[in-house]
Amino acid sequence: MTVSIDTDEVSSALGHGRNQIHDVRAAADKAVSSATDPRVKSALEAILGRTKADLDKTDGTASVGEKASHEFATNDERTSKNVDAVAQSSAPVASTSAPSAPVQSASVARPMLSAAQLAGPAPQMPSMQGSPMMSMAPAASMGSPMVTPLAMAASSLAPTMVAAAAPAPQYPPGSVTMTRAQLAALIDAQGLQTGDSAKGGERATTWDGDTKPAPINVDDVQYTKGKGKLSDAEVSAAIDSAMDKTGITPEARPQFKAVLEFMADKESGDNADAVNLHDTNAIGPTQVDGAPSQSSRGIWQTIPSTFAANHAAGTSSNIYDPEASAGAAINYIKSRYEVGVDGSGLERFAASRRSNGYTGY
């Protein structure tokens, strides 16, 4: 007995799966090319690079499977013709004493097995938009050597084609899908915080001990409120951390802290979410916090351009973050008023702030 397979069905199934592979790969390329943040782009290239390599491997395996199915069909057709010829040449001679039985050609008796029958007990793969995909694992009882090419392809093709052949979920153009592990790797690669560790939507930072200012682009300034009025302890903690990251020496720290606590009270009433909508700085396009772009913000009331230019290393890019606000204020005071990290010039600056009750920056 010989076995025949429907090569059109196999080609259609494999072709559909390969089209899906190509679509996923194209979406991955588009996601990388459309990323504007170099850090995000680098992380996507690392994650999606492995995905694209797996897709290319699966696509190649599908090509091998398709070729094997055609070779199987060609060998089967050749054997079928040989069987028909042998059957007809050995047909029995009709007896004169009884009606002769019709001779049934072996080709007529050949079963055309369906995809499910050919698969035997092997697990069935997912259907592809209503067209059943033929399992690529022939039954063990089929001893014909013609099965070999298809069987060889089946062992490597079946595991990968299950994922490739399943109908793909529909997502908006440009979407990127990833596992939880991939998302976690992306977050770790970019130094972002999630959950409770990212209070106020602040970007996490790492600090290497450098106390020089670390300017950022004003377009990268974040405007996330949420901390509100701070306690004296919270104000003190923000100043202490900011002094660490701006290099204030131990002997100058008490005087710096006294000046900054005084300014915080006068500038914002210790309110980390304070924003000035009425002075001359309150101009420019409205930002996501509802205030004009150049409005003074945060507990130490810096405008975004000043905050960005004097951003302290190791602090967040959120202008409403108390530590970041204190760090920018210290760097601005040092730069504009020639105040040293050792406190030199600070007494003069403090006296000018206290004149007339309070004088701002």
SSE order in H/E notation? HHHHHHHHHHH
Number of strands: 0
Low-confidence stretches: 93-166, 191-201
How many whole angstroms does the radius of gyration measure? 37 Å
Q: Which class best fits the helix and strand makeup?
A: mainly alpha
User: What's the helical proportion of residues?
Assistant: 40-55%
Number of helices: 11
Features of this protein?
361 residues; single chain; mainly alpha; rod-shaped
Give an overview in words.
The structure is a single chain. This protein has 361 residues and is an all-alpha fold. It has helices at 7-34, 38-89, 106-109, 115-119, 148-165, 180-190, 232-246, 253-268, 304-309, 322-336, 346-354. The protein is built from eleven helices and no strands. The radius of gyration is 37 Å and the shape is rod-shaped.
What's this, in brief?
By secondary structure, the chain is mainly alpha-helical.
Topology:
Blueprint lengths: L6 H28 L3 H52 L16 H4 L5 H5 L28 H18 L14 H11 L41 H15 L6 H16 L35 H6 L12 H15 L9 H9 L7
Helix pairs in contact: 1-2, 2-5, 2-6, 7-8, 7-10, 8-11
